[in-house]
Specification:
16 strands; Immunoglobulin-like; five-stranded antiparallel beta sheet; 2 domains; 1 helix; mainly beta
């Protein structure tokens, strides 16, 4: 009787362990656009930015994903999942964002019959403030200080981004080490108040960069009204 009870408990424990192992697991960055699917590790886009009315090819990376039947966003409003295809290590979804979707970031999990995945480190950012076409030039290194200039295009149907300060989040990745600058106010020159499109220019410098032979720079911006832009990256 004792042995049978012990065996039964062992089988239950093994069954529970197998079920837990089969649950989908999302790894960093957890979300990327189709064009960035093959990008390396932390160089991928962890936040995918879309605008109301967009349809976007959306990829999730991880393990045990073959059974994934959908993606659940939080908050869920304004997002329609029109297609899902899964392999063991990727989930491909086509998302349609409604015109009335609430702006802001959405976290998400992958859903399957064996349970929900862990929460994604990546997010879906719904915003009408978009930046694109990041360019880096005038790169110099003197006495260990790395300096460069950059520019990118912006689009904002409200015209609010072209007047007031912006919050800037930047980082430079050099030989696996990431140096970040977060939360500083940004007053870019050349903006026309009320303009819905334009070009923003900036300059950055980082000290103690001896031996640097190349870097990856990333930048994102936040508007005064709480909207956030895409995150752009450029190698140089």
């Amino acid at each position: 009787m004792t042995r049978a009870g012990t065996t039964l408990l062992l089988l239950i424990a093994l069954g529970a362990a197998a079920a837990a192992q089969s649950r989908p697991q999302i790894r960093y960055p957890g979300a990327t656009r189709e064009s960035a699917l093959r990008c390396p590790g932390a160089g991928c886009v962890g936040t995918v930015t879309v605008s109301p009315g967009d349809q976007v090819e959306f990829w999730v990376a991880g393990t045990h994903l073959a059974s994934v039947s959908g993606i659940r966003f939080q908050p869920p409003d304004g997002i329609e999942l029109t297609k899902t295809a899964a392999t063991n290590d990727t989930v491909h979804a086509v998302l349609t964002i409604s015109q009335g979707a609430e702006l802001g970031k959405r976290s998400f999990v992958a859903t399957s019959p064996s349970g929900d995945s862990n929460g994604s480190a990546g997010t879906l950012n719904i915003s009408t403030f978009r930046i694109s076409n990041l360019k880096i030039d005038n790169v110099t290194k003197s006495s260990g200080t790395l300096r460069f200039r950059g520019s990118f295009d912006y689009a904002d149907p409200t015209g609010a981004v072209s007047s007031g300060p912006l919050d800037i989040k930047t980082s430079v990745n050099v030989a696996g080490s990431v140096i970040s600058g977060v939360g500083s106010k940004f007053y870019p020159d050349g903006r026309t108040p009320g303009a819905k499109t334009g070009v923003i220019s900036f300059e950055r410098s980082y000290e103690d960069m001896q031996g640097t032979t190349g870097a990856v720079f990333s930048i994102s911006l936040g508007a005064n009204d709480g909207r956030e832009s895409d995150t752009l990256q450029a190698s140089f």
